[in-house]
Amino acid sequence: MSAEMDTIEHELEDSIATLRQAGIRITPQRQAILKFMIASHTHPTADEIYQALSPDFPNISVATIYNNLRVFKETGIVKELPYGDSSSRFDFNTHNHYHVICEQCGKIVDFHYPQLDEVEQLAQHVTDFNITHHRMEIYGLCKECQDKKSNS
């Protein structure tokens, strides 16, 4: 088994343990959605998850996907990324990080810059706000869209 598969299996086991601690039953669909989220680095929408899993789970619905994503979000396993378009994207990586977003195709890539972690402390000190979180997005054109643009 590859190191990536080991990591996916380990994160799946940890996430299942978290769900069980919260009293949530582990169904085959729930496990498949979770495994897809762990393996995906594309920040998928509920519809993209549905499209990927429906061949193996013909009885699964988009509503099932949304309901499970809500459960995962409530237990802290995934983050919802609302970026102003009609469908939210979901991120299994709940650690503090940022996103670079392609303005043309919507691709989202994780970006971490440790110096930005101090922003909340500085903002709290300067403003006397009780800071709960922050979000930063960086926009541009991904390499694929740049290539398409230069070839047209």
What does this entry look like structurally?
The chain has 2 domains: 3-91, Winged helix-like DNA-binding domain superfamily/Winged helix DNA-binding domain (Arc Repressor Mutant, subunit A, Orthogonal Bundle), CATH 1.10.10.10; 98-151, 2-Layer Sandwich (Dna Ligase, domain 1). The chain has helices spanning 3-21, 28-39, 46-53, 62-74, 119-127, 143-151; strands at 79-81, 89-91, 98-102, 108-111, 137-140. Helices cover 46% and strands 12% of the residues. By secondary structure, it is α+β, with helices and mostly antiparallel strands.
- Strand order in space, largest sheet: 4-3-5
The secondary-structure element order is: HHHHEEEEHEH
Can you give the mean pLDDT? 89
Number of helices: 6
Which CATH-level-2 architecture of the largest domain?
Orthogonal Bundle
Low-confidence blocks of residues? none
Strand coverage percent:
5-15%
User: What is the CATH superfamily of the largest domain?
Assistant: Winged helix-like DNA-binding domain superfamily/Winged helix DNA-binding domain
Q: Report the radius of gyration as a whole number of Å.
A: 18 Å
Instruction: Report how far apart the termini are.
Output: 43 Å
CATH structural fold name of the largest domain: Arc Repressor Mutant, subunit A
**Number of E-type strands:** 5
Give the fraction of residues assigned to helices: 40-55%
Described by strand count, sense and barrel closure, the largest sheet is: 3 strands, mixed
Q: What is the top-level CATH class of the largest domain?
A: Mainly Alpha
Coarse shape: globular
The computed structural class is alpha+beta
Number of separate domains: 2
